[in-house]
Amino acid sequence: MKILVLSITMLFACSIATLGHGGKKHKKDSTSAQVDSAQHKQGDTVHHHAEGMKPDESKVTADLDDFPSLHPLIVHFAIVLIIIAAALQLINTILMKNHLAWIIGALLLVGSTSAWLASTKFHPHTHGLTPHAKLVLEEHDRWADWTNASARIALVLQLAYLTFIAYKNRNQNTSSDLSGPTRYTRIAAIAIALILIVSAYSVSRAGHYGAQLVHIEGIGPQGKFLEMEHDH
Hints:
The protein contains 6 helices and 2 strands; from the N terminus they run H-H-H-H-E-H-H-E.
């Protein structure tokens, strides 16, 4: 059973990641945007190389202050934890295990907090973007907003669900799994799973556009096109 659960979890995570990075449309758009980006960079190369961060070759492990933005370090917690929480919640709609529900709640708490921090306090400010890069950034931010909203809703519902089962178990004088999950607890678990699927898909889409900004538009490496956080 443990092997089956692990296999389903890995399969679900991989499928979400594939959805987030699939589609030929983005490759086509990126190809057409490379011309605009190249033209912009030709006139702006000296400016950005002068203001971009230069790595310290005397040390292998960079300090946190060496990064132009901590956004990439924070956002990966949200991506991984929200997707795993969605996979586990989907499994738990069948198993209905209390200990698994608590694990999902913990993953959601850390994941939704990471998503919020990545999109607010640690969201990098940009400048000098091409028109196409601005469109990509708007899509990235739009899916990030969907991630934040759906993850928070799922977290609130999961906390309410955990409060209910804790109260029910206390009245039954047991800390084990619910004896015969009720129709309403299963419906609640399914509702949370559906919201988490939306959140997992949204965070994968946001990650897709984030990768496009970095690896295709060239925004972020060595601080290019970014306002340095330590300058504020």
